[in-house]
Each structure stands twice: as structure tokens, then as C-alpha cells.
Design a protein that fits this description.
The complex is a heterodimer of chains A (487) and B (132). Chain A has 487 residues and is an alpha/beta fold. Chain A is built from ten helices and 18 strands. Helix content of chain A is 23%, strand content 18%. The longest helix of chain A has 26 residues. Classes of the chains: A alpha/beta (487), B alpha+beta (132). β1 of chain A pairs parallel with β1 of chain B, so a sheet runs across the interface.
Chain lengths: 487, 132
């Protein structure tokens, strides 16, 4: 047997094995949720087969690096398999291999659906793209049976060099334990849950940048995303309308019943809120999107209210508040809410300076365009006033309203607090927000929950350190969303 | 049967194999493993009820990378469905960046170009609160 003809033969044998297992599982485990087959693509001695000795960690009993990697993948797949239901096996073709790295940044891995299907028996909507694993489930058959290339439902690659080499985020390897006790290390199980969920259908194949549908047809996802400004579902929009909708910050929501019904049990009430009113507010009156601070007093149900007064300490009329305030600025902000500009020094430094001058709150105006406004990072236990950030555009609106102020009063009232009736990460009627920054961030936009969600969700665009190894309520909304699209 | 499976390939044997496995079933996956000498499940030192592991390095060559989007979608007469392979630009990538304060920020982008751009520029995630 030559190497050339060995490959297809082995592939056929493998296909036979997977089919046999599928048959077996369908026969013997009717009550099971879903079975996931992990195809370990690594050659001997590499990746999942790396023989480097490793001490068992966090419930991972593997004794080599390769074993531990594989066990972590099994653990993540098992969590998914327990939540999903399907008579068809879900095939993940996986490997650990060298991926792009620098000393300060690295690709951890990638995953996604390998094939998508439309117009199969059992599809809920015609002319609509479904990821293969979901198409298999809905059709009740393995649509790519016997095909060694297309038999893979999800293709996944992980970085084998991460944290282990000086040019690949040294000192920050994957945490391979199963107990979520990852400390500062990236938790492999969490990362896998996120990526594999995308592969199962937590994404649209329609472009967020252009609004153009994949191959001219909508994705199943597009039937559930609704723009609160245009009152249209994505599936009913033109390309141009979708492109605008994709950057309609905190106005694009998920309408699926499973997510909406589960949301009150997952997210907390109390959406951060800045309201502007007062006799001089004029067109600036209304609610504003804010990013909250990691220091100072948290926003509460009882708002901190006061006249909004700007700090002006630069020749161009802006106010950085990086130094103790002048007498004039101190007079302006005393017992009021200070408006300062972002830049030069830390947010906490600005907050401390306006607080020392008597301000009861601080609003930072972002110094570059875009929405939503980011949060204010940093720590300073001496800061006790609340602080938020607004977008550059909203800051300009507020400054216009303040143009006719006196030295001690503006007639523009700022209320910093929370909307106690609105879930954090939902619109006013309780539908989950999708992440739609302006400008569109290719790769982030639309196919994630909004970053404002609290508690943090698995399918936000960034992985937060406090996530649990769960897809289901009350910990998370990932599985309800997958249910909405047909899982 | 073992020897037949080892020495020859082909759909006829596959059918036989499937029939045999199907007949044996009821005994669970362990029975399948016992009769599958070529690609034995390799769950390793820990097992999970919803997961089966198989070692398939030979499929690496057959897997390749996803092809161009929308290319000659095959029609499946059994299901009536049409399949297309999504290209790499639809894959979800996880990128980690070490911040100035030493903390690691982990986030997701779609497509290898975006991922590479993130790594090269070490652009902080828009969703991570900066300190200033």
C-alpha cells in the first residue's frame, strides 16, 4: 500500500467508524442529548499527542500536555453535547498547530462551521443558510454522510505554541484545568465553548460591514435580529439598510422567544443611564449611552443629580483635569457634575481632581469618534464619586448646551443613575442587545451579545474572566439563542 | 473480519462494517471500539458521556482549507438541500493581547485577516475599558 492510496482508504475507514458510532448512538442512546465526535487531526508526537509530561491540573487527569489539551476539548464538547439535542453526531475536526504570535499578542485558535446548507428537508425557512450541524439535526440525517472532507461540521485549530515560547505570549499558556480556576491564564474550556458555539450557529453569514448576504441568501440568524429604529428584521432589509443597522448602537436586538423568555433569569436589572434635562438643555435633553467606571461609586437607583459644568484648562477650550483644578474651575464644578475631556492622564486621576474640587460626579467625553462609549478603567479607592464616559458626538452636544453658562451655573441638569426597569444588556422591552459598535468592527459586530450585558455572557466579543462553564440559564443565554435558530 | 477491514478498503466493506456494528449495538460504544481496529475511539484517561474521540491524522490532507465562498454548491437529492463551503473569512478567531498593566485581554474576530491585524497591531479591544 502506498502513502497515496492509504489516505483515501483510511478516510473511508474513519467515515465508517463515525457512521457506525452515529448508528450506535442513535440506537442505544435515544435519550441522550447530542454526541460530539472529536477528530484528532494531529500526528503522533504533536498537538493533542504531545508527549511532554504534565501534572494533572484542576480536574484534568491527563499526564501529558497532549492528553490535557484533548481532555479540555472533550470537557467543552461534553458541555455542548449535554445542552444540545440531535439524533446526528456533531463532528469537530480539531488540531493544535503553530498559529500567529508575537511576544504580546497571539491567535489562540479558530473555529467555525465548515459547510452551510439551504433548502434541505426540515429547514424552517427556504432559501436560507444553516450551519451543517444544525442542518443535520433539522433534517434528521447526516447530509454529508460518507464524505471524508465535508463530513466535518466544525473545523477547529488551536495554537500549540501559546505561552510556551518567547515569541508567543510567553508565560501565558492555556489553563487546561476543568475547574475554571484559571487565574490570569486564558481558560481553554471557556474559549472552546465560545468558538464551538459560533460553529454551531451563533453567527450570521451576512456581512456586517456591507449588509450583503452570503451568496445572496439570508442566514437563519437574520430572521431573529430586529432594528428598533427601522422596526425591521434583517431578513427584510436591503443591503444598505443592514449596513446601517449593523452600526446602530444598542438598537439591534434578538427577537427569539427562548432568549427573551430566559433573559430575566440571567441578566440583572439596572441599565446605566445619563439623563439630561433643565431649562437650558434645549435639544440636548434626553437619555445618553454611557460607559461606566471600574472605580468610584457605582451608579445607583437613586441618581446623582446636579448641574453639568465643564472643566476648561486647555487653550483650545477643552478640560483634561489632569492637575488640581484652578480656582475658577473649582468654583464651576463644586457641588455639580464635572464634564471633562479624555486624554493625557488616567480617568481615576481626573476623577480625583474634580472630586477634590467638590464635584459630585464626572462625565468624560471621549476623544475619538465612535459608539458606544467605552468604560473607564482603572482603580483608586479614594475616588468615591460616580463617573461615566459619553461619546465624542454626545460630548459635543452637551458642550453646545453649556455654551451660555455662568461661572457657577449652566441650567443643564445631569442625572447619573440606572434604569431599574431595564435589564443590563436588553432593550426597554427585554430583548437581548447585539453588539453593534459604530463604526462596524469586522468580526465583532452583530454576531455577539452586547458588551454591556451584566452578568457577562459567554458570547460577548471579549472573553471575561468571570464566565462560568455553562451555556444555559441562569448562567448564560447561549443555548436559548441556539434553540431559537432550531437547536 | 479484522483482517478484511485492515487489508482492504471499499464501500462494500464499509456496509458490512456498519451492519455488523449496528447488529452489535445495544452494547454501546465500547462494543464499537472493540470491533474497530483501524480508528479506535481514543477518549484517553478521562471519558465524557457526550463525546467520542478518534485519531485521524490522515484526514489532515483531505480537510484542507475551506474553499471560495459559493463555489459550485452540490445538490443533495436525498434531502433536496444544497451545500456550500464557507471560506476561512467566516471562521471565528480568538486573539489574546497582553495589556500595559500585564493583564490579558481575550476577544473574538471573524476571519484570519482581522485576527492577524489584531495580533500585529496589538490593538486593544474596544470592549475593554482603558485606564486613560
Amino acid at each position: 500500500m502506498t502513502a497515496d492510496n492509504a489516505r483515501p482508504r483510511n478516510a473511508l475507514r474513519l467515515t465508517c467508524l463515525v457512521l457506525a458510532m452515529s448508528l450506535a448512538l442513535e440506537t442505544g442512546q435515544a435519550a441522550a442529548a447530542a454526541t460530539i465526535v472529536i477528530q484528532n487531526m494531529n500526528a503522533a508526537g504533536e498537538g493533542f499527542n504531545d508527549p511532554t509530561p504534565a501534572a494533572p491540573v484542576g480536574g484534568n487527569a491527563g499526564t501529558t500536555l497532549g492528553q490535557q489539551r484533548l481532555i479540555a476539548l472533550q470537557a467543552a464538547a461534553n458541555i455542548l453535547g449535554a445542552a444540545l439535542t440531535s439524533t446526528q453526531t456533531i463532528v469537530i475536526r480539531a488540531s493544535f498547530e503553530p498559529l500567529t504570535c508575537t511576544a504580546t499578542s497571539a491567535v489562540f485558535g479558530s473555529a467555525g462551521a465548515f459547510n452551510i446548507w439551504r433548502d434541505f428537508a426540515g429547514a424552517q425557512f427556504p432559501n436560507t443558510w444553516y450551519p451543517q450541524a444544525l442542518a443535520n439535526k433539522l433534517s434528521g440525517t447526516n447530509l454529508s454522510a460518507g464524505d471524508p472532507v465535508n463530513g466535518q461540521d466544525i473545523r477547529a485549530r488551536f495554537n500549540s505554541r501559546l505561552g510556551l515560547f518567547p515569541d508567543c505570549l510567553p508565560g501565558l499558556p492555556f489553563y487546561l484545568g476543568l475547574d475554571n480556576n484559571h487565574g490570569p491564564l486564558p481558560d481553554l474550556v471557556t474559549f472552546l465553548l465560545h468558538e464551538l458555539s459560533h460553529g454551531l450557529g451563533f453567527q450570521t453569514f451576512t456581512s456586517a460591514s456591507t449588509g450583503v448576504q452570503f451568496d445572496g441568501r439570508p442566514s437563519i440568524w437574520d430572521y431573529f435580529i430586529f432594528d428598533n429604529t427601522t422596526n425591521k428584521l434583517w431578513v427584510n432589509m436591503t443591503d444598505a439598510e443592514r449596513a446601517v443597522s449593523a452600526r446602530n448602537t444598542r438598537k439591534l436586538v434578538w427577537t427569539g422567544a427562548n432568549v427573551t423568555n430566559a433573559l430575566p433569569g440571567v441578566l440583572s436589572l439596572g441599565t446605566p443611564r445619563l439623563n439630561i434635562s433643565g431649562p437650558a438643555a434645549g435639544p440636548a435633553a434626553g437619555d445618553y449611552l454611557v460607559g461606566v467606571a471600574t472605580f468610584g461609586a457605582p451608579l445607583g437607583a437613586v441618581p446623582v443629580a446636579g448641574q453639568l459644568m465643564p472643566v476648561v484648562d486647555q487653550v483650545n477650550g477643552t478640560g483634561l483635569a489632569c492637575n488640581p483644578l484652578s480656582a475658577l474651575n473649582a468654583l464651576a464644578v463644586k457641588n455639580n457634575i464635572a464634564l471633562v475631556d479624555r486624554g493625557i492622564c488616567t480617568f481615576a486621576t481626573k476623577a480625583k481632581n474634580v472630586q477634590n474640587a467638590g464635584a459630585i460626579g464626572m462625565i468624560v467625553v471621549n476623544d475619538f469618534a465612535g459608539s458606544p462609549p467605552g468604560g473607564l478603567g482603572g482603580t483608586d479607592p479614594n475616588v468615591i464619586i460616580p463617573a461615566v464616559e459619553v461619546s465624542q458626538a454626545d460630548g459635543a452636544t452637551l458642550k453646545t448646551a453649556l455654551a451660555r453658562r455662568s461661572r457657577t451655573a449652566s441650567g443643564v441638569i445631569a442625572n447619573l443613575g440606572v434604569n431599574g426597569n431595564q435589564f443590563v444588556g436588553a432593550d426597554p422591552i427585554g430583548r437581548a442587545l447585539l453588539y453593534t459598535p459604530d463604526p462596524v468592527q469586522a468580526g465583532f459586530s452583530v454576531s455577539h451579545f452586547d458588551t454591556i450585558a451584566f452578568p457577562n455572557l459567554l458570547m460577548e466579543p471579549n472573553i471575561n474572566g468571570d464566565l462560568l462553564h455553562s451555556l444555559v440559564p441562569p448562567a448564560d443565554l447561549t443555548f436559548p439563542l441556539l434553540q431559537d435558530i432550531g437547536w | 473480519m479484522q483482517s478484511a477491514l485492515k487489508q482492504g478498503g471499499g464501500r462494500r466493506r464499509c456496509s458490512l462494517y456498519l451492519a455488523t456494528i449496528g447488529a452489535l449495538f445495544g452494547a454501546g460504544v465500547a462494543a464499537a471500539a472493540d470491533t474497530a481496529p483501524v480508528a479506535t475511539p481514543q477518549n484517553g484517561p478521562q471519558t465524557f458521556p457526550n463525546v467520542i474521540v478518534v485519531h485521524t491524522p490522515e484526514l489532515a490532507a483531505a480537510s484542507g482549507t475551506a474553499g471560495p465562498a459559493g463555489e459550485a454548491p452540490p445538490f443533495d437529492p436525498q434531502s433536496g438541500g444544497t451545500r456550500t463551503t464557507v471560506d476561512e473569512s467566516q471562521m471565528s478567531y480568538t486573539v489574546g493581547q497582553k495589556q500595559e498593566n500585564g493583564q490579558l485581554t481575550v476577544f473574538h474576530v471573524v476571519g484570519p485577516e482581522q485576527a492577524a491585524k489584531m495580533v500585529e497591531s496589538a490593538t486593544p479591544s474596544a470592549s475593554t475599558p482603558p485606564n486613560k
